[in-house]
Design goal:
Helix content is 17%, strand content 33%. By secondary structure, the chain is an alpha+beta fold. The strands form three sheets. Strands 1-10-9-7-8 form a five-stranded antiparallel beta sheet. A three-stranded antiparallel beta sheet has the order 2-5-6, covered by helices on one side. Strands 3-4 form a two-stranded antiparallel ribbon. The radius of gyration is 15 Å and the shape is globular. It starts with a strand and ends with a strand.
């Protein structure tokens, strides 16, 4: 049985983003008075009083650089929330941010979009459907309301 792994932003990349983000801007920490921000470092929502930052992140660009691929026009960057300081990272169980409609966007080994699907529920079935095509090597889960990157999913 194939398993699917939700991957948060790695500690190494978080260290870089906390210095200078993918737009070349310095991080500006803030205290989250309300809570509820989707944190990409630990794949959970923030709680009131936590120190967080909104940074620019280019997930496909970073994946492509690590795999020796040119993402071409599919290279994009956007805003993501992270903890302003190191955190414990994600809980390995479950499907993060599963309580709303999400878009599951599929990518090939050469960094091209192979399609996407609006899903009601983030579960193994949604990822099994996304990875049914053997040319899919990477999936991005995105928020519907803003299109923001939430996390990537890989087989295994």
């Amino acid at each position: 049985m194939t398993t699917y792994t939700a991957r948060s932003i790695t500690p190494e990349v978080l260290k870089e983003l906390r210095s200078t983000d993918d737009s070349g801007r310095e991080m500006v920490p803030l205290t989250d008075d309300e809570g509820g921000a989707p944190l990409r470092c630990c794949l959970r929502r923030s709680t009131p009083g936590e120190r967080i930052a909104l940074v620019s992140y280019a997930p496909l660009r970073r994946w492509a650089a690590a795999t020796g691929v040119d993402p071409g026009a599919y290279d994009e960057q956007g805003p993501v929330f992270i903890h302003a300081e190191e955190c414990a990272g994600p809980d390995p169980d479950g499907h993060p941010f599963a309580g709303a409609h999400r878009t599951v966007r599929r990518y090939s080994a050469d960094g091209r979009i192979l399609g996407g699907e609006l899903v009601d529920t983030l579960d193994d079935r949604a990822f099994r459907n996304a990875f049914d095509d053997p040319s899919v090597v990477l999936v991005h889960v995105r928020a519907v309301e803003y299109g923001c990157f939430l996390y990537e999913v890989t087989r295994g």
